[in-house]
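thought: user wants a sequence for this fold. calling inverse folding tool.
action: design(structure=
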């Protein structure tokens, strides 16, 4: 008690009712007092502190920040979105080292030098906001998301307690609630994680904890062999998570996919029965909604039936394809049954363009995240705080400090409304259709999948020298070398970036992915023209 009294008397924030509290007992006055404090801070954001008048932002630092903002706006944003600029000014690592002044010295450098370093950093970085950057499952640049990122960086807080992140804590609650509503969970819980891989790791960890809560204290010793099921075309993060959590990659069973890349539900059930017969314990099925390469959506309803029958946790990795839930037009045909899952990974930083990183892990179950991860650190999550400590959500996380990922998404959502998302997602899927038709109609181009389900358009470019030679023994080997060669030329010319990969026994093919609604039909025509230009002599 005496500590509290001292701190109340010392504090610059001590309220006018502190004396009343001391005299009349704390409990009776706590709420009145905190409400009054809150009201006064709402009306007036200056603290009651006597200090000499001094601008906290020195003139030279203000000038520096203004100059930085110009670099960001002109070099980063305007040029970054400009079709006439290169997507990348590529240099091999050794050469790049000579082009940049990376040395850290004993003496400080002046503002002019720092601005030059910033400009160089932009110059030699990849312009992922460029309309012709198609390389990754993220692209484009949303102005409001960007504005949100700037403010988040400026406020530089950590999303663990209401105390240091009051606005972001309740904002995170609101946004996660909204996302769960869209998934179709009533109630439940969630958290923003640093990426889809970590969200998938959360899924495995909470699922295992639900079945075996003792594991938190006793660890892996004495546990039966636990087995995870995921499709052959699912993301590698499932295997990584199994390895990190001590489940072991040998205990990740890869379920067969059909020719479109979708998990075959009957094979899933056969594998579950096989594993049970071996005496192991199946506990977790990962479905993918939007596989990384082909963009396949696993049959959620069928998998949900199997999970219910065998009592398994059903997780949906919708890191990439989850954006389709924002489109009433395309959602049902892709993600019917998602509401039956136990948990989902959904990355707004991918198809929804919210900026790196923004990944939600959502689950149907309440309190599980908290119980599974809480460590109850007394220096951070004190239970005798003067506000409702259920708003200190940080102990649900496996991290301590946690970056604020919600604000950019919230601001973007405010700027678009639900309607804007419907339009954006429809635009993404409509552009996909446009490209599919163009690829099908064009000589020398061949679709890997005739009808992609997500916004992944996978195709081969077959140079004139290989056309009509499909039956020759070395055809596949030669075709396999085409995409990497075109990619090399593409990177060196800097005109655009698009990814390629092999898949199973399929030789290298291009994967064009759409995650930005601002890609135009001209950009897509350019993509095909450019691949042809770069590869027709091969
Ligand atoms: C299906 C799928 N799941 C998970 C991930 C991992 O997401 P992140 O890169 O945010 O960790 C990816 C990444 O591409 C993905 O395609």
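)
observation: tool returned 538 residues.
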């Amino acid at each position: 008690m005496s500590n509290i009294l001292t701190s109340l008397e010392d504090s610059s924030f001590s309220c006018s009712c502190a004396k009343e509290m001391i005299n009349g007992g704390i409990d009776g006055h706590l709420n009145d007092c905190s409400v009054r404090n809150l009201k006064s801070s709402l009306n007036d954001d200056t603290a009651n502190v006597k200090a000499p008048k001094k601008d906290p932002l020195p003139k030279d630092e203000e000038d520096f920040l203004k100059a930085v903002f110009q670099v960001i706006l002109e070099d980063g944003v305007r040029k970054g979105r400009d079709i006439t600029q290169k997507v990348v000014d590529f240099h091999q690592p050794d050469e790049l080292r000579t082009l940049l002044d990376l040395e850290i010295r004993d003496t400080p450098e002046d503002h002019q030098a720092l601005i030059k370093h910033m400009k160089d950093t932009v110059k030699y970085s990849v312009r992922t906001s460029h309309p012709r950057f198609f390389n990754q499952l993220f692209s484009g640049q949303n102005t409001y998301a960007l504005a949100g990122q700037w403010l988040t960086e400026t406020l530089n807080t950590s999303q663990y307690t209401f105390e240091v992140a009051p606005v972001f804590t309740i904002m995170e609650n609101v946004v996660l609630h909204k996302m769960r509503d869209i998934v179709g969970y009533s109630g439940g819980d969630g958290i923003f994680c640093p990426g889809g891989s970590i969200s998938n790791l959360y899924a495995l960890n909470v699922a295992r904890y639900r079945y075996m809560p003792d594991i938190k204290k006793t660890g892996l010793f004495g546990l039966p062999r636990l087995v995870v099921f995921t499709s052959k075309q699912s993301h590698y993060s499932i295997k990584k998570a199994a390895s990190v959590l001590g489940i072991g990659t040998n205990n990740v069973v890869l379920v067969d996919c059909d020719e479109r890349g979708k998990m075959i539900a009957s094979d899933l059930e056969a594998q579950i029965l096989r594993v049970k017969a071996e005496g192991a314990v199946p506990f977790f099925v990962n479905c993918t909604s939007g596989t990384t390469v082909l963009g396949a959506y696993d049959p959620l309803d069928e998998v949900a039936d199997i999970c219910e029958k065998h009592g398994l946790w059903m997780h949906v990795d919708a890191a990439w394809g989850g954006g389709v839930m924002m489109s009433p037009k395309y959602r049902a045909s892709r993600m019917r049954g998602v509401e039956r899952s136990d948990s989902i990974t959904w990355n707004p930083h991918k198809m929804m363009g919210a900026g790196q990183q923004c990944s939600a892990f959502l689950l149907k179950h309440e309190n599980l995240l908290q119980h599974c991860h809480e460590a109850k650190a007394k220096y951070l999550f004190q239970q005798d705080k003067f506000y409702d400590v259920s708003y200190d959500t940080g102990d649900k996380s496996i991290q301590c400090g946690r970056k604020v990922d919600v604000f950019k998404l919230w601001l973007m959502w405010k700027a678009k409304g639900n309607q804007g998302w419907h339009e954006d997602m429809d635009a993404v899927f409509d552009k996909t259709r446009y490209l599919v038709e163009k690829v099908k109609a064009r000589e020398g181009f061949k679709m890997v999948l005739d009808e992609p389900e997500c916004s992944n358009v996978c195709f081969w470019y077959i140079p004139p020298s290989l056309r009509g030679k499909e039956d020759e023994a070395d055809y596949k080997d030669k075709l396999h070398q085409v995409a990497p060669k075109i990619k090399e030329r593409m990177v060196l010319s800097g005109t655009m970036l698009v990814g390629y990969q092999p898949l199973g026994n399929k030789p290298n093919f291009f994967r064009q992915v759409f995650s930005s609604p601002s890609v135009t039909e001209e950009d897509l025509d350019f993509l095909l023209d450019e691949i042809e230009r770069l590869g027709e002599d091969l």
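thought: summarizing for user.
answer: Here is the designed sequence. The longest strand covers residues 281-288.
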